[in-house]
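[job 0412] stage=fold_complex status=start
inputs:
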Amino acid sequence: MIELLRIEWLKLKQYRTFWVLMGLFMIVLPLWNYGFSAGLLKFGGGKKGVNFLTSAYTFPEVWGHLGFWASYFIMFLSFLMIIINTNEFTFRTNRQNVIDGWSRLQFFHGKVMLVVAMSALATIYLFVLGLLFGWANSGSLNGAMTDIYKVGYFFILSLNYLGFGLFLAIWIRKSGLAIGLFLMYSLFLEHLCYGIINRFTVKPYGNLLPLQSSDELLPLPWATMAKSLLPVESTLSMSTYVLGTMIWCLVYYLAGRTMLQKRDW
Amino acid sequence: MKPILSIQGISKKYGFIQALKDVSFDVPEGSVYGILGPNGSGKTTLLGIVLDVLLASGGTYQWFGGMRPEDARKQIGSLLETPNFYHYLSAYDNLEITAGIRGKGLDDRIAVLKQVGLFERRDSKFLTYSLGMKQRLAIGAALLGKPKVLVLDEPTNGLDPAGIAEIRELIKKLNKEGYTIIIASHLLDEVEKVCTHVAILKKGNLLVQGPVDVVLSNEDHIEVRAADMEALKAVLEEMPGVKKIRLADNTVGVLCEAYIRPEDVNSYCFNKGIVLSHLVLKKQSLESKFIELTK
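[job 0412] stage=fold_complex status=done
writing structure:
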């Protein structure tokens, strides 16, 4: 498995798109959060806008806020995952890998390892950013470990988003189309679907749709506050969402594996 | 001795199109096995199946008497259809990936690049290469780690005449060193010069297969000319042992039983009062056999 990852690294280490998208993720995520913590970004805009968030970057709130925004920025890495995989199909290097002696499954597992490794790296990065933001805004590391499980939520959210990207790439095989579908689904279609489902179910089971099941783990922080003020509606537990995410990841794995095994390359 | 590759009843359908129909043959160790056929006859499909990038609709194949296919492929250097490499990496770095997947070291990377004439351009990105250079790199990649078997699909594609001659010499040399080489081509000239065995495909059907001398044996014919061609034709049609007469381009082609030699034809005609002005024993070329079989 480590050998598979080593060869994936050989493929990527000189690939400019890899570094650009990784770089965008690593630079824009802290900049954006800095914008909120420094009061540069406000809701309502202009100098009179309301800044909900200046206190949101102290421990332990920092984990929830960083995690929420990172759950958007992780899309850069989903796109990267799509591009890396569709490139293999476009340039037929997937064929070459198999001809040179990988089994189809080994090719697939190399990519799965990449999903896990990139998710782990993004999570470690989020953890470091959280410590830096929290420390800068709290003045100490007191309370840093409270709510630290949200970093773990981010890891499985990353697995979900990158795994979904991998699944789409294997299914669609064309990068433009796969990225377009990813955006259309994640920004619009899924919301439409869970809106419809939740209207007809007692509990909001629509929230268990592929990406939403992870989004629920790191919700918009002040929306949680707002919800707690509203009449209690029945919700699903966090462990349900964790389980939901895991099941979706398993579905992507099995679907990707089956497609690659059953198809001409 | 176990064959290097044994193909049993391989079929392949693409929708309604039958790309391969019940193809079976064995590739003996140490042979240069030519898979011939016109464009679209199923050569690449067949190689794609035995290299596991395509799935057969029926039939089986075995490498090295039943070795696990991915282990077998690590000992086979293959070039299938087009050279496929990471376009943003140099030849040098692409070969590192090939070696990594094969589980081989990088000791012979420089030697291989020199062998295919890419040493000077080893650090240029793949996308800057000409078609011929890409093809050379693909051949180089196939040679990496000294595999026992080479599978080469149209290896001279995109090469200039000097490059084609180099590849031909390389194939002969490697075969002498003990490599088994499977080569698919529609360029018969090339194949005829190097192959020990052939399989000829047409529209997915295997027409004939076996050692080159067996496939082409008993197919020699004798060409004759005389002043009166019609009389010559009439006389030869009467000759015992003659199977077929063909008059074309002012030459009579005589297809006859194997025991009949050119001197027999000569004396027979002379006794019948016809003096030959031209007498040639024509060995059938792979090309004419191929055209005869596939037309």
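[job 0412] summary: Residues 2-262 of chain A form one domain.
[job 0412] exit 0
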